[in-house]
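step 4 of 6: structure.
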Amino acid sequence: MSTDQTDGFGDDDLADDGEPDIEFYGGKLASAFPLVFFVVWAIVQSGILRIGDTTGLVAGMLVALILGLFLVKGSWTGYANTIFEGMTRRVAATAVVAWLWAGMFAETIQTGEFVSGLVWAADAVGVGASMFPAVTFILAGLLATGIGTGYGTTVAFSALFFPAGVLLGANPALLFGSILSGAVFGDNLAPVSDTTIVSAVTQDADIGGVVASRFKYAIVAAVLAFSAYLVAGASMSGLDIAGDAREILVSSAEPLGLLHLGSMAAVIGTAVAGRHIVEAISWGIVVAFVFNLVFGLADFSEMLVFRASEDIGIAQELAFLPFVELVEAGETSVGGSLYAGAQGFFPLIVLVLLIVAGAQIMIRGGGFRAIQEWLLNSVATTVRRAELTMVLGTAFVNSMITINTAAEIAIAPYIARLGERFNINGYRRANILDANTSALGYIFPWSGGVLVGYATLQGLPDEYAWFEQSMVVNPIEVVPFVFHGWLLVSVFIVAAFTGFGLEYISDRESEEVARA
Amino acid sequence: MSILEKYLAGWSFRTNKPSFDVGDEVELFVTGRENGAQIARVGDSKLRLDDDAPDGLLDKRVRLKVTSFDDSEHVGEAEYVETVGESAF
């Protein structure tokens, strides 16, 4: 078949004629080259060299797309057009929009002392060493559910709760595990989590509905994990260090920061009520913004600021405004939580566009269909086996690609197609995809979530005189203690075997993806 | 569906072979072809589309009206109503 652009493409992505739109040297499976190359790059970069740089993955995907050209038979035009075709798919655009909004919200409640509010709560509860990991799990889960980023939660809690807990006498490995468990909980459940957003939009489901439907799996695992932290906390001893744990907490406590539980409720409530995610997060941003200003949690300029040159006359005249600051010429910029929150997602946005382009090439080249047919004919032959394949497949890819959002985007088309072939509901597919993505991203020693926490712990000896290098938890030591992660995967394995939570498309229609 | 109903949906062990009643109108993906007829597989149950259904519906989301269903074999027949969507990929 010609790949000349003037031929265009058929309307049917997977027409039943078995003829691909783009032909590759090496057959249909060679169309998987860009994605396979990317996966190998991701394993080498993030898994072996342990470099958690998302822009590095962007470079990997770009190189993959260029190298893929050389495998195309005949004209390269069809291949080039397919890159555009993939990047302009609605699934990518929806994720991009939702991420930008989520980024602004998360940064604004963090600027508004939300973490300090949780620190105050921990101090106010006044728990001892044995209960500290269990309480840490809950508070980390709350933060992660509010800000949607497990990495951010891990860093914040490793810097504050970890030293406080160690000083109190909690077991360090157990405590680190409880922090990572909280991160898994929020990454999985938060409507503003990057992985939640990807899981919903790739499975044609609305984000609010996805959050409500995954609550049952998350809460079953969380109750068990909380109990496990209570039992383990009581039976595992910590270190005996002289010092006052309260000092660490009190110095960072701000009770009013807990007001942002209201900002969280605004987002989750409106999203689950069925409002568009852009509308839901916009309400959250407005509420957080107002709370910050009214209760003095953050200045206007911490959320939005124009830093203009002091040499400019008009800038001097406008300097009375709360969002204009005068700086030296050459240091001008725009800043604040709205700016930084959106900017934080830029590398991931570019990456998702390129990965979706790579997936589209695999679809047009017939590789996607070849693998799909093999799975359907040999592995996923019944609905129970199909779901188990989806659970284990997602877990496997996430154990290799340690930046979990990237892994999720790569496996999402298979989860969608395998599930659709058994008419498994979009909510269920999104839940299988996200639970295993969130969990595995914080378990293995080479996982991105574990590594950001480990890096934070390594900085603690410089922060506190009493903290010795030997108190840092090695990534391999924490593996068994990420209880919520292990339990979430286990819940889904049981769910796949038993049909717990299974819904078919005909049981309940996911709301329009337009309202994602 | 209320917010509470959304949280409570799916708290059950769903069968791998769901049943349908004659007259049910359902939205499903067309999942393959068997003995010449297009079929919509739901779990491990199957609905055969009638011969009047347009060809090439694979991986399209369609509205179907169930015309017969055998509860012991978990196989039935359905009338094509309209195409309502397609796969995200």
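step 5 of 6: annotate
 - Chain A has a mean pLDDT of 88.
 - Chain A touches chain B through 49 residues (CB under 8 Å).
step 6 of 6: archive
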